[in-house]
Design goal:
- With about 140 residues, this protein is mainly α.
- The protein has one domain.
- The chain is about 60% helix and about 10% strand.
- Strands 1-2 form a two-stranded antiparallel sheet.
- Helix 1 packs antiparallel against helix 2 and helix 3 packs across helix 4.
- The longest helix has about 35 residues.
């Protein structure tokens, strides 16, 4: 998957772009093959934050999967019809890797903004014993 990502992000020539498209098409073809032996079932995913949700939705759409929510489901809920094999072998591992990278990047950016615009010390609060209790 990292190779495909690298191909997409660094593709500058028509040949490189074609190679990236071919690699993505291979994964889509594999998904079609998996569907024949492992039919899609409805999955419910709950995302912890908007950024995880957005990257997960993009990943689903990359593979021509159609995410949805049912009426009255939380905004953080994502439903999709997909085979168990594809979720376990491809989709979920890719999501975890991409989400980890995105979270690290966003945390780094947030820390820089807080240090520059608010205060240089953006560390966590100190943990103390409960006030008024003796041990």
């Amino acid at each position: 998957m990292k190779l495909i990502e690298a191909l997409h992000s660094g593709a500058t020539t028509p040949g490189e772009k074609q190679a990236a498209e071919n690699a993505l098409q291979k994964i889509k073809d594999r998904l079609d093959q998996i569907k024949k032996v492992d039919p899609p079932v409805e999955y419910k995913f709950s995302m912890q934050n908007i950024w995880s949700r957005r990257i997960f939705l993009a990943l689903l759409r990359r593979y021509d999967l159609k995410p949805y929510r049912r009426f009255r489901q939380r905004y953080t809920t994502v439903m999709v019809m997909v085979s168990k094999t594809f979720v376990e072998e491809t989709l979920w591992p890719q999501f975890l890797a991409l989400d980890k990278e995105l979270t690290a990047h966003l945390n780094e950016i947030a820390d820089k903004i807080i240090r520059r615009a608010v205060f240089d010390d953006s560390s966590e609060a100190e943990e103390v014993q409960a006030i008024g209790f003796e041990e």
